[in-house]
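Q: Convert this sequence to structure tokens.
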Amino acid sequence: MKGKLWTVLAVMVVLSLGLAACGPKPTAAPTEAPTPVPAKETPTAPPAAAVEVEDEWGVIKIAKGDPIKIGFAAGLSGAGIDVLGLDEQRGAELAVKDRPEVLGFKVELQVEDSQCNAEGGQTVATKFVADPQIVAVVGHMCSSSCTPAATTYEQNHYTMVSPSCTAPSLTAPDTGTKAFNRVCWNDKIQGPAAAKFVYETLGVRKVATVHDGSPYAEQLGQEFTKGFEALGGEVVAAEAVNVGDTDMRPVLTRIKAAEPELIYFSAFVAEGGYMRSQMADVGMEDVIFMGADGIKADEFIKAAGDAAEGVYASAADFAEAGADLPKFLEAYEKEYGEKPIAPFHAHAYDATMVILNAIEQVGVVDGEGNLLIGRKALNEAIRGTKGYKGLTGTITCDEYGDCGAGSVAVSMVKNGEWVPAEAPAVAEEGPPDLGGREVVVAVENAYPPFNFIDEATGEAIGWDYD
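A:
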């Protein structure tokens, strides 16, 4: 019995060990799962800050990809006028070629023919102010066109920079506008400078003046007269012709009766050519003829023919021009196949650059890539131009819009081309023509002469009859 008991116990122990081996394995102590690393986020640009430009004259908005439109106005038609305007257009084009973009926006010229009269100027100004994308205007060319245009631009808060409108009234304190600026001189400078040349260099004391009724011609004639009379000269005749006149003999006949030594003609090429070429028809071929920038063009030489020889004209003094002028003149000839054909090509270049400089100064590109330009800010930046080194000299605007260097030089036609003026040759005085008559010279010798003795030799060496 005892043996069986032990057997049973042994079997139970074995069974219990087997069951333990076959039972479930103990569960491991729980552990925390690792925290997942978040994916690296691609940084995003902060939203563009809103750009606001406020301007009491209004803001020009040029969409991204659109050009900066600059108006250009000059006389591009009419005999003797077209050549002056074409020359200015070329100057502006070369400026854009040298500076094709501002603030990442392409620059584009919109060219219009403002002719050289009030109607043309008013028509073009009205067209420009009807286009809100026209930023500013290079022009106009003639004072008769600039005068009504300046009023229109003033009323609509547009700004103009003229290469060649020289009438004093355009910048006078009582008649000027905020819209008008010029990089040429004021005829308050040119008139007296021409008068000084006539009086002091040519030695003329009696002159006749002729204008064509335009603001430029009439006011320049007035400034010349004031300067000439202040020097002591006399204006013996003051006449006017009409634009388009071709027969100048009636006017010249009246002038001849006053016996002037010089005619000062303050108008333009076509009428000037007729007047100069017809002076011989009334016996005035020996009277000096002088004009101003209105006739200083190769077209005048063609119009007057052989009579152009010896004609004088005042215009810009490029001897005082900027250092880049020679490079510009070379580019002009390369681009257009001829030398400049009139006086104001470099002034048109400078007028364009003054505007582009101001756009760069005040223009703002917003978050959407649009260019915003305040019209009053632009006007003040243009009028605030100081010390700009232009082709024509240093450009600094005063409070009335006179920005040009204001230096004037006189040229003359010699051998069929314009050259720096020379004073007329003065014949050397010789012995008078006695017509074959005999001359007897009486000499008085009231005192005995002195005979000089050489101290070394004791010999006579000469006589003194004093």
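The chain has twelve helices and 20 strands.
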